[in-house]
Specification:
It contains 9 helices and 14 strands. It has about 350 residues and is of the alpha/beta class.
């Protein structure tokens, strides 16, 4: 008997989401991609931008037609024409920037990772709850239509018992990139490794045991991290992330009844295949894409959640973000990887 067809994605058109007025906190590369995507594919309004450099804010505002530019994060957080702040600063400012927005009564979407560690992630969640505002991590992959199909496959039990998750992500960077800067929480884990680790913890939950191996770079950051993890029931996961060169960035979820193989880069728009022991296969095909094609989905999902009075977004709950950071912390502690700014975390 042939397997049932794959489910259809349930993700609504981003143009149908109610418009929020967004403030961009940190006008870097990812903020540019976010702005391009939401302006092209949604009704979201980029109302303001803030940076520690007024000149950078003005340049960003001019490039994207943003009406207001501020020379500090504090000014952006206090701006009356902003409903929600998108925190896209370097990693080690995510926590403090998010708190500025929350304390000003603004909703907040924090670029991944939500903090340097689980302590910061839990603090953001607690502060947002106390202030009565929305907070979420911008782990954009989980908002893509293909991941909604994957979620339905997992929820339906099509794979049977998930026994193994394999995921990796490596890229090449110019030596001048901030990923080589220890002062900016460099190394591949927070930039790249959060993707496989988020997938693993989304599918299998929190690991019960982790075993990590690391390699150091001459710049002083971690250059490569590999890990094996064990979960409740005996399931395993294997991950690798590094900054040496591009990899297929593929991911595989193995179950007792079927295997789900995600084309690389698995975290971006693209295809996947459901494979059964009898050799039959179901294929999901869609055009491969990058941030421009996908970041608007997270903005639209956030806008819908905020408009409906939700404190978080179901596609990436705060508990899920914290669980991923807890796993990252466990790996780092085994290897002695520390990030500058963690000392400022609440205890």
């Amino acid at each position: 008997m042939p397997p049932a067809p794959l489910p259809a994605a349930r993700v609504p058109d981003s143009l149908d989401a109610p418009a929020l007025r967004w403030g961009i906190m940190g006008p870097g590369w990812i903020a540019e991609r976010f702005t391009e995507s939401v302006q092209a594919h949604s009704r979201q309004v980029i109302a303001a931008v803030g940076s520690r450099s007024l000149a950078r804010s003005k340049a960003f505002a001019e490039s994207f037609g943003v009406p207001a530019a501020y020379g500090s994060y504090e000014e952006l957080a206090a701006a009356p024409d902003v409903d929600i702040v998108y925190v896209s600063t370097p990693h080690n400012f995510h926590h403090s920037a998010a708190l500025l927005a929350i304390e000003a009564g603004k909703h907040v979407l924090v670029e991944k990772p939500i903090g340097l560690d689980a302590v910061q992630a839990r603090d953001i969640a607690a502060r947002a709850k106390a202030a009565g505002v929305f907070a979420a991590e911008a782990m954009w992959s989980f908002f893509l239509p293909k991941f909604d199909i994957v979620r339905q496959i997992l929820e339906a039990g099509t794979l049977g018992t998930v026994t193994t998750v394999l995921a990796e992500y490596g890229e090449h960077f110019q030596r001048s990139h901030r990923i080589f800067d220890p002062a900016l929480a460099g190394g591949p884990l927070l930039d790249l490794g959060t993707y496989p680790l988020a997938l693993i913890t989304e599918v299998l939950g929190a690991p019960q045991q982790v075993r990590a191996l690391g390699q150091w770079h001459e710049s002083g950051v971690n250059a490569q991290l590999s890990a094996v993890m064990e979960f409740a029931g005996g399931s395993h996961a294997v991950m690798n992330t590094h900054l040496h060169n591009f990899t297929p960035a593929a991911a595989t979820i193995v179950g007792s009844e079927a295997t789900l193989a995600l084309d690389g880069p698995f975290n971006m728009p693209g295809g996947f295949e459901l494979r059964f022991p009898d050799g039959s296969r179901l294929r999901h095909d869609e055009p491969a894409g990058a941030h421009f094609e996908g970041l608007h989905y997270e903005a639209a999902a956030v806008a819908r959640s905020v408009t409906h009075g939700l404190s978080e977004v179901p596609e990436r709950t705060l508990d899920a973000s914290i669980r991923t950071m807890e796993a990252a912390d466990a790996l780092r502690w085994q290897l002695g990887i520390e990030f500058q700014g963690e000392g400022n975390s609440p205890t």
